[in-house]
Specification:
Layout (H helix, E strand, L loop, with lengths): L11 H22 L8 H20 L9
Helix pairs in contact: 1-2
């Protein structure tokens, strides 16, 4: 057994701030889809991009690496 307790990656305040930022990105992407039409595709591109970034950044670049080894 190890005497070392559970070590968090971020503190609570940082986690809440990051959650709000990425939730805002995701909701902004959903909101951009409401302006999408066959004549104007840019809101759809922006919506896909914002939703993609709001999911990919936390899951890959900010998440804990699987190769941490410990």
């Amino acid at each position: 057994m190890s005497d070392i307790g559970y070590q968090r990656e971020h503190n609570l305040g940082q986690t809440v701030i990051l959650f709000i930022i990425f939730l805002a990105l995701f909701l902004g992407g959903i909101f951009a889809f409401s302006f999408w039409s066959l004549l104007n595709v840019w809101p759809g591109v922006i919506g896909i991009g914002l939703c993609f970034l709001s999911l990919v950044i936390p899951m890959t670049w900010m998440g804990r690496s699987d190769s941490a080894g410990e």
